[in-house]
Write a structure and sequence with these properties.
- The chain has five helices and eight strands; from the N terminus they run E-H-E-E-H-E-E-H-E-E-H-H-E.
- By secondary structure, it is of the alpha+beta class.
- It has one domain: Alpha-Beta Plaits, CATH 3.30.70.
- An eight-stranded antiparallel beta barrel has the order 1-3-2-8-5-7-6-4, surrounded by four helices.
């Protein structure tokens, strides 16, 4: 699957959440749609919106229909928008799915593109099960750009206390990732605002 990840700075996050709720049906009607989710920080105006598609072809085919919607969104809730496309290489939801009010930690990473396959296999076999076993974890997603080696890992927690209680194990996993040539960059902690999955 492939994902379009939109990051907005300086947005009115409350207005953005309402906009997405009102327009979600337009996105969900596109061929190959699988998921739409949004998270934000009301104090900073940072906003993350992800849409997931069956294939890159479906994602690209939806772009003409959704470009006008993105512009309408910026007019509605403001801010500066960055759009990236990634392959979704891992996604797992726990017994209790994410819901508005949960906490998303979104971390950027970089690796040598030649090591993507081996590191994704390691993530799926070692890291993902450990993350999902942490108390309060609702979902984990891993996105990567195979050409550049850049990626994003998003983990959703029931609340901030659940996120904070995982810090020790997380530090160990990040150290192990570093030994595999994975470098971590920016990190955002956001409130889950909205989510919709395909019903087909």
């Amino acid at each position: 699957m492939h994902a379009r990840l939109i990051f907005v700075t300086g947005a009115d996050v409350t207005v953005a959440a309402k906009f997405l709720e009102d327009r979600a049906s337009v996105i969900a009607a596109q061929k190959g749609f699988r998921q739409l989710a949004a998270s934000g920080d009301r104090s900073t105006g940072n906003l993350s919106i992800i849409s997931v598609w069956d294939s890159r072809e479906d994602l690209e085919a939806s772009d003409s229909a959704l470009a006008n919607l993105r512009q309408e969104g910026l007019t509605s809730f403001g801010g500066q928008m960055t759009v990236r496309v990634f392959e979704q290489v891992a996604f797992e939801v726990g017994e209790t799915p994410p819901q508005p009010g949960c906490v998303l930690r979104l971390v950027t990473y970089q690796m040598d593109p030649s090591r993507i396959d081996e590191n994704i296999s390691w993530f799926k076999s070692e890291v993902l099960p450990a993350m999902m076993a942490s108390p309060g974890v609702r979902a984990v997603r891993n996105l990567v750009d195979r050409e550049t080696g850049e990626g994003r890992v998003g983990s959703v927690y029931s609340d901030k206390s659940a996120m904070e209680s995982s810090e020790g194990d997380r530090a160990q996993r990040m150290a192990a990732a570093g030994e595999r040539g994975i470098e971590f960059g920016e990190e955002s902690v956001l409130e889950v605002l909205f989510g919709q999955m395909s019903t087909s």
